[in-house]
Amino acid sequence: MPSPEDARLDRLEGYHYHSLSAALRNVLNTEIALMTYAQIIDGLPTADVVWDRYSATYEPSHPIINHTNLCGGALEKAKGFCAQFSMADVMVDLEKLKAYRNAKPSSRSFQLRLIEMTACALHRIGVQLSQLEKVHDPATTASHNIESTIEWERPPDDLCRFPPKPTMFIATQFTAHDRYPNGVDDMVGYWVENRILGGVALFDRSQSWTGDDEPNVYFQCTRARVTFRVCQLLDTQQSALISFLLADPGDADIKRPLPILPTSDNRVRIDPGDAIPVKKVYRDIWERKLPPRRWRAPRLERPKSSLDYPELDTDAEVFFFLWPSRSDQGRFCSFIKHVWRRSTSKTLTPDDQVSSPFNIYYEKYPAPVDVDKSLNISFRHCVYPYCIHNKGLAIVFHAKCVEIAAPFGIPLHEYRLVTEHSYRCASLNHEIRRGRVRELIEGALSKTYGKLSPELWHIVSDDDELIRLYTIAELSLQHRKTEWSVDLSLPVLITVVRMDGVEYVGSFTNYSGIASHQTTRLIIPSELKNFYIANDHLGIRRITPDPKESSLDTVHPAYWKTVSANSQTINFRGDGVKLRELLTPSIYPRVLWPRPVAQSELNSMAFYYAGWGEGDLEARLRTLTFNEPGTTGYSVCWANDEMVSIHVHRNMEHREADRTVTHEHSEIEDRSLLKWTCYPVQEDEYVQEVWLRGSEKYDTTRPLPSHGDGGVKYHVSTPWGLNKYKRPSDIALALVTSKGRKIVAGSFPDHHGQHSSYSKHRHWDLVAKTSANAPLQVFFSPSDHGIPLIAATRLADNHTAAPPPSQTPLGTMPRFNPLHTLHYSSASLENITEVLVCKSKNKRDTGVIRHFDLENSRMVESPYKKVAGLLFRYADGSQASVGCFRFDCAEMPLARDASRGLFVRTRPGKIVQIPPHVAAIDIKPPEAEGEFTWMEMPWTGVLEWWFNPDNLDTSITHIL
Predict the structure, then answer these.
(1) Staple 144 to which of 61, 148, 344, 660, CB 3.0 to 4.6 Å?
(2) Could you tell me the pTM of the whole model?
(3) Cis peptide leading into 259, omega within 30 of 0?
(4) Are residues 872 and 774 in the same domain?
(5) Alpha carbon distance 422, 435 (integer Å)
(6) Furthest-apart CA pair in the chain: how many Å?
(7) What ranges in 477-565 are assigned the alpha helix state H?
(8) Where are the alpha helices (DSSP H) in 320-426?
(9) 896 and 883 together in one domain
(10) What is the pLDDT of residues 402-438, one digit of tens each?
């Protein structure tokens, strides 16, 4: 309801009327305004807008997560409203209207009052629309109407709760509806300002400004991943806004700057708690409740990031992120790790400027790693665990490497593309390359200086500076063009070059004059139907027309593409030394294979796509073969609640095989802290069916998506902590064996509730099937962001009708943190001979017992490692595991002997949000409990082990 001090906008006259009318029409003609008002007419905001709020506290199972699109009729009504807009329909505060009317046209005061009136009008339009009948369809919010969606709370429990607000149109700092003239509708109005303008418009009221010295307008932006602080607009931002507001609404070329979001350039900022009482920055004195000072202080005591406090940054005008982001690699010699931390570095910026030498360190926080005063540039690490900066990267070289390269006379920037990694490879690859370079050095020394003791050359080749010189010289001896075009109707020559001791394709050309001792293959047109290209992270390793010719050095892995030779001309991009990539599209260009795959085999493949997540946009497939001779089990690798890899165990090679896998994924483990779940099989048991949950059988007539799923919007605060992004696919693997066992690797599907983002991804697909004990082959793409793609030979339609697998617990599913996945495992406790205990080696999985030493007046801490899982060995020779288990993390076996049962020591969480974990396992009764709870389980019945692989939260049930 309008207050007595309100007045209609049509009371204005002349220039003031036409200026404000044009401003409002310009704003209403923007897409952001149309979508904002359409959501009010709908009755609920869309899910992406709900999450795009600072300190959003909605949990993943909230029904609003299903409201991904506007309901029918909302957009059409919003368009009709904007088209019929009239100044006479909007009322604003009379005092503000007078201030605008009294401002001299074209003055600074007029411009600021125009912004103020525009914000007030947009606010009031939101209030009016909020009071109208809505068009919301409950089917879009899991059968909840508007009221029940707003009032929705999870079922009663002991967890910390956030009472729902009276509306879901919320600008975080503007929720004092009990003091607003229009109550809850004014909350909607502030939300409108925040969505359309980029923030709630505030002004400096510290004095009565009489001339043109009034400061710029402030915006209080409450969007996610921007800043919680009040920011003053830059002159350029305010000028752009004024130009837009005063533009002719009929101008087709009008520049629309909305929404205007604060950036690191907006250095004039105010903490929200100080805006009204200290700085006197507000629009209405009652717009926000002032929290007690003791509530505001903790925020100021938190670590200050450059997102919220850019004024704490250096005075450098430009900054770049370092690449490689890991501090153990340099562009010239990525395999010389142990010299990095004690050496200086130089960086090459995207515009080819070379920095001065500086010491680099790995600690990631917003402060710059180095500031180059001469270039006025700062360099820093990305603080995000999975760096997504594709641009603005400064390349890191060891300063000593740059010094060694200088005599060759090649500018440093020409090494940029040659040394670029197209994807991050395992650290084991760097070590192997270092060994190969040493072998080449030893061979060259022996050839030049005669046959001396091999031990002597081995000692000499271990010199890091000599290794650097050899690798840099290899890159500097020959440089070719970077663009290659080949006519396939003519004979083609292939030449090779060597980098780090590994052979690459140096050229692929019709030009016969390039032929030399390096020419390895002449291909005539009649041979070309399809050809096969092998790539690794540094370039093209092999080009061949024969799919059976895959004799690459297996020590240095590469991935293959199949390319049709139907095109008359194909194009490549080079880096001056070797070919880098094929520019002509291949068959399934985002899928790379571990061996050459003929087109007939590709046509018989079925693809199961689970989403790229935040990872690479290529699927580099590996072969996973079930039922190979000597197979003793399978392991599945997990990182941050995602399945990232699968491994096969054979015979007694468990420990060595696990070490190999650890090396292969060492980069992942450094960042994600891997966990493994183990699934043993008996000697006479084989896999008959392979099932996959959480992926879609992909239509191969269309290409795979060319963009990632993102996910930063899911990093939001909840009652259980920070909700990190996880793909909604929730991928799981199931194996049906010849003994009728159903092995399921993946989360328990009912944990997240019925209305979670995983609800649509619970169907199972039969991927592979065999009726005999024969090898069963599947291809999968390991990725630390979750396996994106699995491929297998397409099954006949009559095979896909088999019943899907399922898990049927004997006990009740525990209540766990719904932000994390919950896995289920079980094992019989009968006829056990040995128990192997697996404890996590990750520092994050370390518990601490604290007690006060009265004699020395100090707190004593006793750390211990959490138990990740168990492996049971039975009298008949079979095995079973629960929880997470890796053989190289297992302790000495505990023999059952004459013990009366299994004793499990758990440490309960201090509050319900922190579930218990397993601290110790024994076969002897405990001497004392202390801070722990001991469970005794006799050697009978079934042990059910519910767990989360990421943090080892564990709940145990003994079913008799």
Answers:
(1) 148
(2) 0.67
(3) yes
(4) no
(5) 22
(6) 104
(7) none
(8) 399-405, 415-418
(9) yes
(10) 888 888 888 888 888 888 888 777 655 667 778 888 8
